[in-house]
Design a protein that fits this description.
This protein has 481 residues and is of the alpha+beta class. It is built from eleven helices and eleven strands. Strands 1, 2, 3, 4, 5, 6, 7, 8, 9, 10 and 11 form an eleven-stranded mixed sheet that branches. The chain starts with 34 loop residues before the first strand and ends with a helix. Mean pLDDT is 76; it is low at 16-22, 157-167, 276-288 and 460-466. Residues 298-319, 395-418, 454-463 have a biased composition (Basic and acidic residues). Pfam families: Brix. It comes from Neodothiora populina.
């Protein structure tokens, strides 16, 4: 029998495809956030917006519905109903108005809130890749969630009065913190101590741009990058860099360095002044990439018996030094602690697309509905705000009353059904008893009729099947003959 094929590249249980630390939920019982990118109106939005929706789905991989197919007949109610069973936590709804404006709504299920954005400008992935000389497309980078980087969302607070702060910053602080929280909840949180740098393949950058024309505008720029970490070449010795680029140097006029005066290659590599005559500062690599210092990975082996004993002795010496310090004695010199080993990594970013410039227009309290918490074009006074709060409080009470009445009606109908079922069962049981009595009476009457019928035919009303009676005299006469 042939061996069953196992997918080694994209299978969930295959080697190298385990979920990264950033994709795992922060708590054991918590679920990783999932999203659905939907176009309202299906093909009515146009081919450009449809392609934008596909690009956003690829950016939100892997915890998104990448193969979702919409229909014209689908309503928002259909998606919100299925969001709960499927574990969807966020909805990104793209639509197009009658004026041709592209809008995006970012909502949290099941109760909101909802952010309304106007997509002022956008560029598709194919347009971004065409503008590059060496475009990059790596499918393995979409197996893990991107790293979310947010910039300039919450402005710096100053020691000023409330009126001055409102005049300098017309956008309320609650709106800034709410927008920050919603964008942070798109992806699972990560732990910097446990997350490996090699597991981060993509970055989603959300930058708030201050508007010079209107201070009331809340404008965001969204970018999507592929990230690659490598050891920078200029951190290596010049001699190693010279040998590493030997293939390129053969084409240049200078060629390879002259090693004839050295007895061994080690003399050239270990001598710090050996490569001074062959390289210059102009030949060094340009510092175009960002550099970070990370903890170098260390492979630790299992300690044997002697190493464990040595570690116990060091602990005893440390405890003895602490007790001597408490008693006022001079402690022995403790061995120096080993500093953590770090290494430099060069971070290179290459844009993947899409690009979007989003302008926040409205914030609603519920899921695509409810009380308007903030509006770009409409500003209300304190009295109007209080009146709106009272109106929504009355609506909430009416809604709760309707729910209570509906619940009571449902319970009452259930009780009626139970009572009607019980009455039907009792009636059926009584009818069954009456039928049994009638059957028994019919059986007795049929027995009486049989007796009467046999009596008429026998002449004496005796039993038809009774044996005939023979006299003894007749039997004796027969014997004599």
């Amino acid at each position: 029998m042939a061996k069953r094929r196992v997918k080694k590249r994209t299978h969930v249980g295959a080697k190298g495809t385990q979920a990264a630390v950033g994709d795992a939920p922060s708590k054991p019982g918590a679920r990783a956030p999932k999203s659905m990118v939907i176009r309202i109106g299906a093909s009515e939005v146009g081919p450009s917006v449809s392609q934008l929706v596909k690009d956003v789905r690829s950016m939100m991989e892997p915890n998104t519905a990448s193969r979702l197919k919409e229909r014209r007949t689908n309503k928002l109610r259909d998606y919100t109903t299925m969001a709960g069973p499927l574990g969807v936590s966020h909805l990104m709804l793209f639509s197009r108005s009658e004026n041709g404006n592209t809008n995006m709504r970012l909502a949290i299920t099941p109760r909101g809130p909802t952010l309304h954005f106007r997509v002022d400008k956008y560029s598709l992935c194919k347009d971004v890749l065409k503008s590059m000389k060496r475009p990059k497309s790596d499918s393995a980078g979409y197996l893990t969630s991107p790293l979310l980087v947010m910039n300039n969302f919450i402005q710096a607070t100053t020691e000023a009065t409330e009126d001055e702060s409102k005049s300098t910053n017309p956008i309320p602080k609650q709106l800034e913190s709410l927008t920050t929280t919603i964008f942070q909840s798109l992806f699972a949180p990560i732990s910097p101590q446990q997350t490996s740098l090699n597991s981060i393949k993509r970055v989603m950058l959300v930058d708030r741009v201050p508007s010079k024309d209107d201070e009331h505008q809340f404008v965001l720029q969204l970018r999507h990058y592929a990230i690659k970490s490598s050891t920078p070449k200029h951190s290596l010795p010049k001699a190693l860099r010279r040998l590493e680029n030997a293939e390129k140097l053969t084409r240049a006029s200078k060629g390879l360095p002259n090693l004839g005066k050295f007895d061994d290659v080690a003399d050239y590599i270990l001598d710090p002044t050996a490569a001074a005559g062959f390289t210059s500062a102009s030949e060094s690599e340009a510092d175009t990439d960002a550099e970070v210092e990370v903890l170098a990975p260390e492979n630790r082996k299992v300690m044997n018996k002697e190493e464990r004993q040595r570690m116990r002795d060091a602990q005893r010496e440390r405890i003895a030094a602490q007790t001597a310090a408490e008693n006022g004695q001079e402690p022995a010199a403790a061995p120096p602690k080993r500093a953590p080993r770090t290494e430099k990594k060069a971070i290179k970013m290459q844009e993947l697309g899409p690009r979007m410039t989003l302008r926040l227009t409205k914030v609603e309290e519920g899921l695509c509905g409810g009380k308007i918490m903030w509006h770009e074009y409409i500003s209300k006074s304190k009295s109007e705000t209080q009146k709106q709060e009272q109106t929504w409080a009355v609506r909430r009470k009416e809604k709760e009353e309707r729910k209570r009445v509906q619940k009571e009606n449902v319970e009452r109908k259930k009780e009626q059904k139970k009572s009607t079922r019980g009455a039907k069962h009792r009636e059926a049981a009584e009818e069954g008893d009456e039928d049994e009595d009638e059957d028994m009476e019919d059986a007795w009457s049929s027995d009486d009729d049989d007796d009467e019928w046999h009596g008429e035919h026998d002449g004496e009303g005796g039993d038809k099947y009774a044996p005939p009676v023979v006299d003894d005299e007749d039997e004796e006469g027969e014997d004599e003959e």
